[in-house]
Input
Amino acid sequence: MIEPALEAPASAGGVRTVGPRGPLTGPLSPDAPDPLALLDLFGDGFVRDPYPWLDTLRAQAPVHHDPRTGLWLISRHRDIRRVLLDPAAFRPDNAQQAVTRLPMAVLRVLARAGFQLPPALANNGAPSHSGLRRVVTRFFNAQRIAAAVPVIERIAGELIAATRAHIDAHGESDLFAAFAQVLPCRVLMELLGIEDVDPATLIRWSDASLELFWGRPTPDRQLELAELVGEFHQWLSATVRAGAAAPESFVGALARHRLPDGTPLDPRTAVSACFFVFIAGQSTTGQLIATVLRRALADPVPWPDLAQRAGLAEAWVEEVLRREPPVTTWRRVTARRVELGGAELPAGAELLLMLQGSGSDPEVFAEPERMCPYRPDIRHHLAFGAGRHRCPGASLARTEAAVALRAAARGLPEVRPAEGDGQQPMLGLLSFRAPLRVTVVGK
Ligand code: HEM
Output
């Protein structure tokens, strides 16, 4: 699934911007200040406040070549939707490629661990995709999620009780580390029947995978991350190959799965599917919960109402998904020469769909900068993608985030953000963005 990028990203000599009126190519004159020439998708400025950049992209350069990453940034809601709904012209093959080149030493660490991830789910444009996807959706369909609510509430209740005790003893707590990050991991483990690893390890492996493949780590950091990713992969391979998984577990379902030609799934592809689901199924939701809590604590939405007013927590989660989703971008690659947003793109053009910006597209959402939990078109955002690869974990993520918000508002009614919370560290990867700390203080 995640393929190491062996080549450095294609880098252009200057900034190429293509708007509806046609391409503007070549290096821009230093006398013609172009704000987009300064855009750094990993820079602190963009990570902390991406909205002015996303607005500029959408308004001035809806199809924009980013020379730092070699990606074409697609920012209008209608263009992104069109890409997602046309998998023949816009293939998913590059969805999980490493964005930062992996040096030979790092590739060696991964190779030693037997790291190999053939296309399985998000980056699989082949006919095997739909059957594999059905294995996932069976575990996360609406009925299963409705039945899982008591499990989610129980785990959320336990974590909030521990957080309550910590605040009472020490005056403060970090709701990300103590709650947001742990809840989805423990829920996923119960739903998928994972027993022989502790949540802290699974979280460490998952976060390392995100940083190695979607981040801009230094070579030394890449080596550290590769060790963790290798451990994760080895544990998954051992679990899949042991053949001892309970039949009702996710690994057991993959073992029973048959490909379109009737052959069983090879273990490498089963590992690849698990690798993605075990990461996607917890890290993203932890990030969503962190943002949901931080926005609810900072914005003028009455905290006690979230616990009591039916549907408010769900609506708040939906607005956060629209305006500040955890999965900020997703990738596609053009299968052939194609027109998009008034521009001609060559075959093999790597696209970065700016999902976060599309949730603030004024063509679709009125007053996009305002958090309005009851806006009529609330579900028109693309935070979970669309079409054939649309996120099969959307119901689980939405449910967990709403349960988490209600549990926090109910169990920690008096808390407020610690001073300086706005300046706390942020996760800023190519496709994932969220607060890394949500510190609150008691009375
Ligand atoms: C807030 C949490 C989440 C967000 C924002 C999110 C977002 C996304 C996005 C944007 C995609 C790509 C969709 C596309 O290409 O059209 C995706 C795919 C996927 N997500 Fe999620 N996701 C979340 C939670 C989850 C959870 C809880 C699971 C657990 C099962 C999950 C499993 C997957 C899988 C398996 C795919 C690939 C589907 C396919 O290719 O058919 N995600 N997700």
